[in-house]
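Re: beginner question about structure tokens

> Can someone show what the tokenized structure looks like for a real chain? I only ever see the sequence side.

Sure, here's an example I had lying around. Input first:
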Amino acid sequence: MRLAWMVTAGLPCFMASCAPAPREAGRLSVERQVSVETGRLQGVLGPGDTVAFLGIPYAAPPTGEARWKPPHPALPWKGVLAANALGPSCPQPDRAEKIRKVVVTALGGDVDAVPPQGPKGFGPTSEDCLSLNVFAPASPATEKRPVMVWIHGGSFAYERGGEEAAVLARRGVVVVTFNYRLGLLGFLAHPALTKESPHHASGNYGLLDQIEALRWVQRNIAAFGGDPSRVTIFGHSAGGDSVLMLAASPEARGLFQRAIAQSSSLGESQSLATAEKDGVAIAESLGATSSDPLRALRAAPVERLLAAQSGVEPATEGWIIPKPIPVAIAEGATDGVPLIIGATAKEWSIFAIHSPPAKDRAAYRELLRKAGESHVERLLSLYPAARDEDVPAASIRYLSDWDFVCPARYIARKRKGRTWFYVASASATAGEIGARYGAFHGSDVRLLFHDEMGIPLGEPAQRTGDAMQHYWSRFARSGEPNEPGLAEWPVYGSQYLDLGDPIRVRSDGDRAGCLVFDEVTDAHFAK
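And the corresponding structure tokens:
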């Protein structure tokens, strides 16, 4: 069961970094063609000095009887496929639009300059959405290049894999982005689905899509100049949780060699029994209550499924996720994969724009009580709020640590494998607004991808983003992030890298609140 304090897990990503970069008008095909297992592809000019291959099917359409089943390999095509446009986005709600406008306005951005989220911003949607995109440096190379596979976030219910990560190709890596099934289409569990599965499991179809995309990479990425023995998976928020789940999953073993989890939680999932109970309730709300509920569910229009879903979450179903991720990590399931993990210093400031976590000291005490009554006074001393007007800032500090920073540190502390822990403190927005909101949830993605989207980054943020690109691409290349000219980033013991301006190494003794988190989390998983 998800821990009570992880209240942000069901929230969509509100920043412009969630949306794909705008497509260039008149995108021209290039002479370069490649052959993959299903046919030939014609590339196009990509962002910067790259060649892009867009909208490549990596699995057959998961429609009709294939809805809520593991993905099957894509079907071959005849002739040359013009890989010149992103494939359809997976079906998703469009409820975040109002919130997006509030957030972009609060950060000083131009709402009209930022594509809207949801289907309107992500183009057409379709259940036939299992496609990926490859971005390769245009310049020739004498050896195979490392590969970086980006897993988008969005609460397992929103967003798409587009052109956002393509900028990293200029660092000499081959970049892959992809779509995976979302919401109920990606994560519905139901006793009938479990019964028909040879693995007696249901609920993680979106994760199965991610694994299928990684299998495609192993079989085909050499055609684009990529090295299948040097694949790094990296993702943000729900994408970061996905990274941890894949690193711990026996089904994904050997499909990648390194991993980067940005602003994840503990990668925690609900029990299969809980997920099935929720699935039965959803089926009943859709009228699928006959002796064959799957027939009715598979015939239900997508619009009805989108209207019925609320929060979605992967399930510990004994197959893709054999046991809770923190338990698997403590038992060494991920130790063979070098890992970069971290969060931003003020993750929660972006959520507090539309949903203040606490407005006065009484509400603040109730918030802290979710960690356990015995911890309240200690937490009040670590995150003090002497007056009601101190509560908003204190609650943001507390929730930023409790939901993001401390989980990342907890995982770094539990692993025996090589791990590098960071906290990004650089503001991604210049001026007074940047000082107010600081390094919010998603700001590290803006830094890494140099994603301005109508909100200028500012020179310090550009410098930090450049350094992140160097650390990330060096890690993909060699399995460790350090290179000459950058601050030396030690393997985690008791130190972490502060991705601020300047970048520096700090002791994690300055994060005393995480000691309480460790105690509560250890007790939870000891039950």
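Each token stands for a local structural state, so reading them left to right follows the chain. The first strand starts at residue 29 and ends at 36.
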